[in-house]
Amino acid sequence: MVHRGISTLLAYRQRAKKKSENQTLITIDFYNILLHGLAEKGSFERFNDIFNLIEEDKLSFNEQTFAAIFECLGRVETSEENIQQIKKYKEMAQDIGITLNQIMDRSMFTADQRDIALDAIRRIEPDFTPIYTPPVINYNNNLLNDLNESILPMDDISSNKVSSQTIRNVMQHKRAYSKAELEKMAREQLKIELDGSITIKSIESSSEFSNAEFCRGKLKELEEQWRTQINNALIRDLNTLRAQIRYKPNGFMNYYTYLKVLDPSIYTDILLKEIYKLAEGSETFSPTVGQLYKELGQKVQQRYQVEMKKKNGTLDKIGEIYNGYCDFWDEVNTSDNPRQIWQRLVHEHRISGPSMDIKYGSWPPNVLSGVGRFLHNILMRDIKIDVHILRKKGSSKQHNVLPAFYTLFRNQGRLVKEEVKPHPVLARLLRTSRQQTLVFDSSLVPMICPPQPWSTPNNGGYLLNKSDLIRLPHQAVQQWERINSTSPQQLYPALDSLNQLSSVAWRVNTDILDVIINVFQNGGDDKLDVPKPPSSLPPLPSIHEETPALTSAERSKRFKDKLAHRRKQAEMYSLWCDTLYRLSLANHYRDRVFWLPHNMDFRGRVYPIPPHLNHLGSDLARSMLVFDQMKPLGPDGFSWLKLHCINLTGLKKRDSVRERLLYAEEIMGEILDSADNPLTGNMWWTQSDEPWQTLACCMEIAKVYRSNNPEGFLSRFPIHQDGSCNGLQHYAALGRDEVGAKSVNLSPSPLPQDVYSAVAALVEKARKSDASNGIQVAQALESFVRRKVIKQTVMTTVYGVTRYGARLQIARQLKDIESFPKEWVWPASTYLTAKTFESLREMFTSTREIQDWFTECARLISGVCGQNVEWVTPLGLPVVQPYTRQEAKHTMRTSTRVSETMAMDMYEKPNVMKQKNAFPPNFIHSLDSSHMMLTSLYCEHKGLTFISVHDCYWTHACTVPDMNKICREQFVSLHSQPILENLSAFMKSKYSFRESDMLNDGSADDLSKRRLNRTLAEMPKKGDFDLRNVLESVYFFS
């Protein structure tokens, strides 16, 4: 492979010379990779050839180059010539200002490279011991610098093991398990990640078929046959690809290079899992072949990255470092947070073995699809099944072997998609023989040990599986460039917040899980958001032969009914499967502690990586999880628990805290009845806005109510504090808007201000006026302009919902009102959308001005400059909007050659419409994520358990007052920064045109540039609202 790499590099150099292209893309890093490849073989005689190429390309040696040289010389037996060569290159390094210490300190090593290079150096300097530069571990951000006071110097890790009571022990509130227990958990987690998947028992209730054992035996025989067929097909097709490379010019590259990285047995395992996955799929939906190609390619890449970590020693080193990390989760006192502990441990282990901050680059999307297509072709061509396999008698003489999978073409809107379906016999065989199990990739399930802290943008989350720090489309390269060029210190706030959220241990609330499983297994319930199985959907009435011929209108109606029926069936199956996965995983982890590694989207909003079992979902999903750590309720905890229950119902949104608590006492009988008889009692909990969370809270209240010592009751239950239309809160704070601030509870008031009800009142006032003037749609809406109807639209207006989107939201709410005439849904939703937007603009003048400024800035930046809009959040995270106008490029699916072109946002034109519409909501999202991160970090520093669902913050009942105080302080601290001024200055420095760029000819281009400069500098005026009022506002977050 090294020789192939050299010949490929030569081919690209030759092509660049012929076309007189700039060779800046060929850097010393490419040559260093080749040098390390040669060094592994001890082929120093080939180094001179590479040195000549480096000289021709006018490149300079760097530390990594000398590391490769010393590695190679270290692999050669010691001799006089060897010693002289080592001395020669040491002197060469010194001549260009590179010391031996810098070579060892600044280079990246894998496997035994570090030890071999060090051995070579010690042949001429026996006493040489490298001194490694410790990482900077403190913050460099005005909002967080006061947390630096508790960070001890980075001399060595032992200096941070303290016993002084004056040092705040950040890890104390995370502790619950001994080092031995944590190490056992880590070993289990590593095994799961090395296996690549986990098999769990399904909670689906169905009886076993009578011939299940017979079918399982046949399936086992088939699997052995398939394994042989796949292995033979892999050898055949890989040899074909290899021959293509051999007889093609040096510039030619096909997928053989990527497919050669793994043993064929691994590909066989991947394909066998894919066979089962496809054969057990839905009857109404199948993934397109494009999706299958990509998913198969990603599985190969993930497996390759795990194998590389095993090969280069990273796996063993992670084990060593993680053992040290377990000490801090057990008993060692420290003022460090998880990232700082991990950084100290990594630094301590730098004396030997591989580097821990190696970047594992992702394969290009076209390569992923190509590798997936190669494997998929084997699946389609070589996997066969005997269609008589299910016959018990006489089957030995009859064989009709056919492909196990076939393709079909399905209309999806204006497009026709190619999909893969299993042969009906294979589908029946699997359905009959199934073992009631589900298989999940190891990167899609919670971790059973604390996650690896994010210490760099490339390392964090799962122990071996690669976790992406930021969720971005594959063509979005610009944001990664900004992140990689940013100092590590600038990213620490975002990384530390992810680490804090990831370090919270969870358990399944088994009381509520058993009730949900009961409802699910008994056919579901739409009113409780427990999906019904698709089999419960009544079939369409069949047409009998004696029915007279249908008219064209009747045929058209029947065709539309069929489509709607199929769509409904597919939707029901999707929802049913999602709930099945969620409940099966919850049941699997019911008696275990687990952790949820987190990452973020490009704006900085955080999400748990496991998609099925997490706290970021529907009411049902949130109800099933509680904290692992138990804390006594304390003097006010029971009151917070009761208040939380009433908040969840949504029945007392306009009432004070005192009135809500009194109401809780009034209905205590209903609460206790709900807890004791959830499915057979009065079922008061089902009337709630969030029924399942309300039921879970009722069960917790019942336990506390009946305990002998409510204050000492140990509770795992999370209490929520929700922002009051949080997007509008940020707009009101940015514009210091007195009226807007009051309507979203930034100002203290005896009763909560409900912006949704206020907007609904304005809309109702306008409706009454129109109704009195004889407008029919206004008359049809009498008594239907309700808070719930317009709530989602008000909430999402600030996040950039369009009029069309708002109309769909309102139409959905009107459809759910049984008494509303269905023929008026669409005209009424159009009318209400217009009135809601008018009312919002009337109420929030400052918000409108800021939103308009954001939109105009983004329009001019993307239209005049032709660039994507970017900014830096107050916590230092670089953000680039990834909306470009990609031209559809048709790629040949049959080609085995790797395409050299791929979409990248930096080389595409920005989509002006998306850029301008998305900038206001994205900027506000980056602010609400900054507020959440600040709250997260200060809560961790104070020893609180903290979790967020965007603008809904969770903690234990006993620590709600502390979290509320921190939440308000950090909101004031954040908005005390000159946010709009900093944004304007950033955009002016990046996008504004100099006077020398102007032609002064009065052209449209010239006028646009001047308008851009003027707009970026013209910030909206601010009001007189005093931010410190937030500190006293009870209903700001409540």
Automatic annotation (TrEMBL):
Domain DNA-directed RNA polymerase N-terminal: 187-503
Gene Ontology terms for molecular function: DNA-directed RNA polymerase activity; mitochondrial promoter sequence-specific DNA binding
UniProt cross-references to PROSITE patterns, sorted A to Z: RNA_POL_PHAGE_1 (PS00900), RNA_POL_PHAGE_2 (PS00489)
One of the protein's GO biological processes: DNA biosynthetic process
Coiled-coil ranges (or none): none
Stated role: DNA-dependent RNA polymerase catalyzes the transcription of mitochondrial DNA into RNA using the four ribonucleoside triphosphates as substrates. Component of the mitochondrial transcription initiation complex, composed at least of TFB2M, TFAM and POLRMT that is required for basal transcription of mitochondrial DNA. In this complex, TFAM recruits POLRMT to a specific promoter whereas TFB2M induces structural changes in POLRMT to enable promoter opening and trapping of the DNA non-template strand. Has DNA primase activity. DNA-dependent RNA polymerase catalyzes the transcription of DNA into RNA using the four ribonucleoside triphosphates as substrates.
Protein name as it appears in the record: DNA-directed RNA polymerase
Gene name of the encoded protein: RPOM
